[in-house]
């Protein structure tokens, strides 16, 4: 499977998810099994490359689901591209070849719908904001209020992307004046700043803290200031592989997909 990532995938988690998915199987998929290969022809005798654009926060889960889809659909290669939802949406509306789009907010997906590139997107998961700090917590960040301290270096997403919108919502709700030292293009870039110790804290998603494992510690956002985003997915109108695109959407929304998302820390709508 070809991956075009802004940042490296955490292969340990992805591998664990693949194992779980292959044991679980997928009721809506074909006859392929864990030994199937993308080099084998599909049922129609043609090889298919399915191009999936997905929000960066879906990296680990969609990597595993992509592996599952390839195993269940011999002859199909899932080509995943992860990044900021707004940037991916712009690619879609600019005519870039793609079959499936999964965004980290309904607003971002709506730009694709309004452009006539998707119809009837389906909400499939949710995510919440959480603070990530380096494992040794050099900034002594123990609460949301600490992010407003001048001594604490904070990273957030660009306000144009969903995780940046969440950061603004969280700070506004808490009445905090936070001056980030950097605004990154997507949530994985913020997480990298934290894991490398370049900042004292980053506002990311719950799933990113879980995916980072021992590299970071999570500091919960108080319930009264918590912010949640909903993720929609759609097969794209210009897809040349409409059947496979819808099958991938169906996998994401199936019990197998829901379990993978839940295991990764996502919420279920």
Present the secondary structure layout:
Layout: E1 3-4, H1 11-24, E2 48-55, H2 59-72, E3 76-83, H3 85-93, E4 100-102, H4 106-114, E5 122-134, E6 154-157, H5 162-174, E7 182-184, H6 187-195, E8 201-205, H7 206-212, E9 216-220, E10 228-235, H8 242-253, H9 255-263
Parallel strand pairs: 1-3, 2-3, 2-4, 6-7, 6-8
Antiparallel strand pairs: 4-10, 5-8, 5-9, 5-10
CATH architecture classification of the largest domain: 3-Layer(aba) Sandwich
How many β-strand runs? 10
Structural class: alpha/beta
Basic shape:
elongated
Strand proportion, as a percent range, falls in: 15-25%
Order of helices and strands: EHEHEHEHEEHEHEHEEHH
Query: How many domains, as an integer?
Result: 2
Proportion of residues in helical segments: 25-40%
H/I helix tally = 9
Taking the sheet with the most strands, its summary is: 10 strands, mixed
Can you tell me the residue ranges where pLDDT is under 50 for at least 5 consecutive residues? 2-42
Radius of gyration, in angstroms, nearest whole number: 19 Å
First and last CA, distance: 29 Å
In CATH, the topology of the largest domain is named D-Maltodextrin-Binding Protein, domain 2
CATH level-four homologous superfamily name of the largest domain: Periplasmic binding protein-like II
Oligomer: single chain
């Amino acid at each position: 499977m070809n991956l075009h990532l802004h940042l490296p995938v955490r292969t340990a988690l992805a591998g664990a998810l693949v194992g779980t998915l292959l044991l679980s199987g997928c009721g809506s998929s074909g006859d392929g099994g864990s030994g199937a290969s993308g080099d084998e022809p599909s049922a129609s005798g043609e090889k298919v490359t399915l191009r999936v654009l997905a929000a960066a926060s879906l990296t680990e889960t969609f990597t595993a689901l992509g592996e599952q889809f390839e195993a269940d659909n011999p002859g199909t290669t899932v080509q995943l591209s992860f990044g900021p939802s707004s940037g991916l949406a712009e690619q879609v509306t600019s005519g870039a070849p793609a079959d499936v789009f999964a965004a980290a907010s309904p607003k971002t997906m709506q730009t694709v719908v309004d452009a006539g590139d998707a119809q009837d997107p389906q909400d499939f998961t949710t995510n919440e904001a959480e603070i990530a700090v380096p494992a040794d917590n050099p900034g002594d960040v123990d609460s949301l209020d600490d992010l407003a301290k001048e001594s604490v270096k904070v990273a957030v997403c660009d306000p144009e992307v969903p995780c940046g919108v969440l950061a603004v919502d969280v700070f506004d709700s808490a009445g905090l004046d936070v001056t980030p030292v950097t605004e990154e293009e997507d949530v994985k870039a913020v997480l990298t700043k934290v894991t490398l110790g370049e900042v004292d804290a980053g506002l990311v998603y719950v799933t990113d803290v879980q995916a980072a494992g021992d590299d970071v510690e999570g500091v919960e956002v108080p319930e009264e200031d918590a912010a949640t985003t909903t993720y929609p997915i759609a097969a794209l109108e210009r897809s040349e592989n409409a059947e496979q695109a819808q099958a991938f959407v169906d996998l994401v929304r199936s019990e197998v997909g829901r379990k993978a998302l839940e295991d990764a820390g996502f919420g279920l709508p």
